[in-house]
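Below is a filled-in request sheet from our internal design queue. Each sheet records the structural input a requester submitted and the sequence that came back. We keep these sheets so that new team members can see what a complete request looks like end to end.

REQUESTER: design group, bay 2
PRIORITY: normal
MODE: inverse folding
CHAIN LENGTH: 765
BACKBONE (tokenized):
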């Protein structure tokens, strides 16, 4: 027996329970819905604003990393004191690498080491000038060699080199300065006639043990001494051998000699502002190559090489500064060429000090101004009056963080220097730049080299062009296939076949791009190189072949065509495509023999077209396969969702299916198709792994389909792990990321505007 328990909510006998909630229940339901709606509304709003905020923070972070490269230099004076030696001329002022000691070379033959921060003398050396002989001239080699030469009044010269011994007692760095004589303490006989040496310079060969010492004598002769040192392997003794040569005379009175470190070229500045370029590679047959009017009516008052001795910087009596270097002409002859000017000081330039490891230099003038300039970027980063009296010397440390400058009253100022990224400017990033050893201005990306004298080339133009080039050829391959396939699949294909094709293509989007890049670089690129006729046949002849097959199909009897159900016609093309592809590949070697002398690649080379194995053609195919699923999926959905009453109405009015597609479906679906194309373009622009593995990563500026490229994204992936954090290279890579992000942001914004206008225009259909 079962007991039936009546609950309080059970209706009484004879009553019917109402299924509708009462007023109180409705109120509770409304309250719950209101809370849920509020939570959803706030959640969606917060998520939307979070996305916008995140995007804004990405921009802010990139700007934060990029901003320092466009800052100028700053100079912060720390102390002022009297020079270690006063009352005589300072021939040269230097700073050692750790910025603790300064060096003062004076005309009385003394070398003084002093504390850079306070001016206190640490060590002082007297150069071994013989009694009764005076210093008549002073010269120095490239700043990184630490070598100076003093010409004497008896036709001899003394060569010295400063060096340091470092020790670390109690974990504190201690520097012991010293002065050495690389060719012995006895003066070298330069002029056998004993005439005073009025000008002198010295340079060590960049490779080997050869040194050239060039001097001008009081009676107007120019002499070149070739000095060779040999060390005895067993005793360690060093012998010095000299050979003396007289150089050809020049028009004018020389005022400065400058010798390139390759020991091939000598530049002689005269008192009329002309520079004489002399070839001294073979000293006994030295000859004058060129005479150039650099001064343009003004006296050249200061000159020096930039690091590497490729570029010469000249300062004039009117305060102008210019950079020159040798450029090959049409006859492959080198000529001294004016490259760029810097901001004028407006006062007589008195001294120039090149940086040790970059193409920059400092200049001081008679108005007490200090200027900091950089060659590659053509920037004047700092130009300000720092003294009330003329400045006569300036020195910068090897790490570019401290500088010294001396005025006419032998007062020395030590200052902290911030000049981290002088090589970057808008001009260097986006305009053609004339780099050393180049015949003309060019767009070049070359961020590193094996030499410390390397001139960094940070042009973003090759990377931007490479990005657009890769995207262009990928879209050229993907758009026709993806959109045509989307239209056919959505509108013409039978639902059963569409249920197979659409998921299959969308699954392609899940393929890792690194696999596509791997296949493109290691399989497709060699295959395309060895079967170029087949590739062109597939691209150019296969569509015609397919249209021809369709025309033949339309001419078949109706009873044959009707055996294939509507929407399955595309399946008939599969064996045709496979057969044509096989035939094209099989005939490719014979086509090369018949029409291209056995090699189509060599034929391209012979007609002046460069062919690289990993090129834009390979990238276009590989990246096209990566982009097709994105474009196809969005475009197919847009076409498929066109309201049926529009297409049925068009067909009912007598239009054919193709007329309906062109006149109704495409205009209605155009916002979605346009969005699909833009999504695919954004995917192509940001693609990294395919272009990294299949392009050859050559930063060239052209749209040649047979040459490679380097894109912004691939460049970041390749170089960012290897660069020093905070360096100019590091920040330029962040700038490249900012350019890439801005490019995609602008493209997507424009695409959304166009999409909305298309949607508004065709919304009335």
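RETURNED SEQUENCE:
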């Amino acid at each position: 027996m079962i007991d039936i328990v009546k609950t309080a909510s059970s209706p009484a006998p004879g009553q019917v329970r109402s299924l509708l909630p009462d007023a109180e229940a409705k109120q509770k339901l409304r309250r719950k819905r209101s809370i849920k709606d509020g939570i959803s509304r706030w959640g969606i709003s917060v998520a939307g604003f979070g996305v916008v905020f995140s995007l804004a923070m990405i921009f802010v972070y990139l700007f934060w990393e990029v901003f320092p490269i466009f800052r100028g230099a700053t100079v912060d004076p720390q102390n002022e004191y009297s020079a270690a030696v006063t009352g005589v001329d300072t021939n040269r002022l230097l700073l050692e690498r750790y910025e603790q000691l300064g060096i003062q070379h004076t005309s009385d033959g003394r070398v003084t080491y002093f504390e850079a921060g306070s001016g206190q003398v640490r060590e002082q050396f007297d150069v071994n000038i013989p009694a009764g002989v005076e210093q008549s001239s002073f010269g120095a080699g490239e700043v990184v060699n630490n070598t100076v030469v003093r010409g004497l009044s008896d036709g001899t010269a003394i060569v010295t080199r400063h060096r340091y011994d470092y020790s670390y007692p109690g974990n504190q760095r201690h520097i012991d300065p010293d002065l050495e004589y690389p060719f012995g303490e006895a003066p070298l006989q330069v002029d056998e006639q004993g005439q005073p040496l009025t000008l002198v310079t010295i340079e060590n060969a960049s490779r080997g043990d050869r040194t050239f010492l060039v001097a001008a004598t009081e009676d107007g002769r120019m002499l070149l001494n070739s000095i060779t040192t040999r060390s005895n392997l067993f005793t360690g003794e060093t012998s010095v051998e000299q050979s003396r040569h007289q150089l050809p005379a020049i028009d004018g009175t020389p005022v400065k000699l400058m010798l390139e470190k390759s020991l091939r070229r000598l530049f002689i500045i005269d008192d009329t502002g002309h520079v004489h370029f002399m070839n001294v590679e073979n000293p006994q047959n030295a000859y004058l190559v060129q005479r150039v009017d650099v001064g343009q009516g003004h006296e050249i008052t200061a000159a020096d090489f930039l690091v590497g001795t490729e570029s010469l910087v000249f300062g004039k009596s009117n305060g102008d500064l210019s950079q020159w270097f040798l450029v090959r002409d049409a006859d492959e002859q080198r000529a001294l060429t004016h490259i760029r000017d810097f901001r004028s000081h407006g006062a007589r330039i008195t001294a120039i000090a090149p940086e040790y490891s970059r193409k920059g230099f400092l200049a001081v003038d008679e108005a007490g101004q200090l200027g900091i300039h950089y060659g590659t970027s053509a920037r004047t980063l700092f130009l300000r009056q720092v003294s009330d009296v003329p400045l006569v010397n300036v020195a910068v440390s090897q790490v570019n963080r401290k500088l010294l400058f001396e005025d006419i009253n032998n007062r020395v100022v030590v200052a902290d220097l911030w000049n981290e990224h002088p090589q970057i400017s808008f001009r260097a990033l986006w305009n053609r730049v004339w780099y050393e050893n180049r015949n003309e201005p060019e767009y070049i990306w070359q961020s590193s080299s094996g030499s410390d004298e390397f001139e960094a080339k940070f042009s973003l133009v090759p990377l931007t062009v490479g990005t657009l080039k890769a995207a262009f050829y990928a879209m050229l391959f993907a758009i026709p296939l993806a959109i045509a396939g989307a239209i056919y699949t959505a509108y013409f294909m039978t639902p059963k076949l569409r249920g197979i094709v659409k998921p299959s293509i969308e699954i392609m989007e899940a393929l890792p791009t690194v696999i596509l890049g791997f296949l493109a670089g290691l399989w497709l690129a060699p295959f395309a190189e060895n079967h170029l006729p087949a590739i062109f046949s597939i691209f150019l002849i296969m569509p015609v072949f397919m249209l021809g097959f369709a025309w033949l199909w339309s001419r078949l009897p109706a009873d044959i065509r009707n055996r294939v159900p509507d929407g399955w016609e595309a399946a008939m093309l599969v064996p045709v495509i496979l057969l044509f592809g096989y035939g094209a590949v099989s005939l490719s070697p014979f086509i090369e023999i018949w029409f291209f002398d056995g090699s189509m690649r060599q034929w391209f080379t012979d007609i002046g077209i460069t062919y690289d194995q990993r090129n834009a053609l390979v990238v276009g195919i590989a990246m096209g396969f990566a982009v097709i699923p994105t474009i196809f999926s969005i475009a197919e959905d847009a076409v498929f969702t066109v309201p049926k009453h529009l297409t049925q109405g068009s067909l009912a009015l007598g239009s054919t299916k193709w007329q309906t597609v062109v006149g109704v479906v495409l205009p209605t679906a155009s916002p979605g198709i346009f969005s699909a194309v833009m999504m695919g373009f954004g995917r192509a622009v940001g693609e990294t792994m395919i272009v990294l593995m299949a392009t050859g990563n050559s930063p060239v500026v052209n749209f040649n389909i047979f040459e490679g490229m380097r894109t912004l994204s691939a460049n970041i992936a390749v170089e960012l792990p290897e660069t020093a954090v905070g360096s100019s290279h590091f920040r330029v890579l962040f700038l490249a990321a900012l350019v890439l992000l801005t490019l995609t942001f602008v493209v997507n914004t424009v695409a959304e505007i166009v999409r909305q206008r298309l949607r508004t225009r065709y919304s009335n259909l």
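SHEET NOTES:
- The first helix runs from residue 23 to 66.
- The domain at 460-714 is CATH 1.10.3720 (MetI-like fold).
FILED BY: M.R.
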